[in-house]
Amino acid sequence: SPIATHICATYNNEFNYERFKARSLSILKKAEDKFGWMYETLCNGKKVNVNYYIWSETFICPSCGEKINLWKESVENNGNKINPDFYCPNCDKLCSKDKLSKNYHPIFDKILNDSILQSKFEPVVVNYKNDKIRGEREVERYDLELLNYAKIHKNLVTSRCFLTIKNTFSY
Fold first, then answer.
1. pLDDT per residue over 42-58, tens digit each?
2. Which residues have a Cβ under 8 Å from the Cβ of 114 and sit 6 or more positions away?
3. CB crowding 49-58: b at 16 or more within 10 Å, else e
4. What does the CA dihedral 58, 80, 141, 64 come to, rounded to 10 degrees?
5. By CB neighbour count within 10 A (0-12 exposed, 13-18 middle, 19+ buried), where does 120 fall?
6. How far apart are the C-alpha atoms of 139 and 125, rounded to whole Å?
7. 84-128 pLDDT tens trace
8. Nearest-angstrom CA–CA distance, 90 and 73
9. Torsion (CA) 44, 45, 49, 51 in degrees, nearest 10
10. Cβ-count burial 69-79 (b if 16+ within 10 Å, e if not)
11. DSSP of the chain, one letter per residue?
C-alpha cells in the first residue's frame, strides 16, 4: 500500500540533522534580512523586536458622527478593565459599544473580485522585546509609518516572499 511504502521509506532513509538544521537556519536568516524591518520598533532610540501589536476596532459616534477608537476610550488599567460606557472624545456624550455604528471602509477582495466593506482597525499598543526585557507602550509615529509603509508595499513584499520561498526550495 502507498502508506506502508511511505512509512517504510521514512524509517529507512537517512536523515542528516546537521544539514537540515543548517539549511533551516539559512532560510530563517534570509527571511530576517529581507523582512525583519517589518518587526522592529524603537525603544529609547534603539531598534528592538516587535512581539505583537494590539489593534482596536473603530466606531462612529451616534451623536457627532466622529470616529471613536474603542481601546483608547473604553479600556483601562493596561487592558485589564473594559468600561461598558464611556464618553465620546469629540462631543463628550455618553456612549456604549452596542449603540455605536461600525466604522467601515471599502476594500477590493481579489477572491470575490468585488468591493466589500471591512471594519476599520487601528494599532494602539506595541509589545516588544529589548534584549531579555519585554515591554509595552502606546503606538508611536514610527510604528504607524512603518505599518503604513508595509501596507503600501504589501504586494511587493508578498511577491518577494513567495519568490524567495519558491527559489529556496527549488532543486
1. 988 889 999 999 999 99
2. 108
3. eeeebeebbb
4. 30
5. middle
6. 5
7. 899 999 999 999 988 899 999 998 888 889 999 999 999 999 999
8. 11
9. 50
10. bbbebbbeeee
11. -HHHHHHHHHHHS---HHHHHHHHHHHHHHHHHHHGGGGEEEETTEEEEEEEEEEEEEEE-TTT--EEEHHHHHEETTTTEE-SEEE-TTT--EEEGGGSEE-EEEEEETTTTEEEEEE-EEEEEEEEEETTEEEEEE--HHHHHHHHHHHHTHHHHHHHHHHHHHHHH--
Which residue, among 78, 79, 81, 57, has the nearest Cα to 69 in the 3D structure? 57
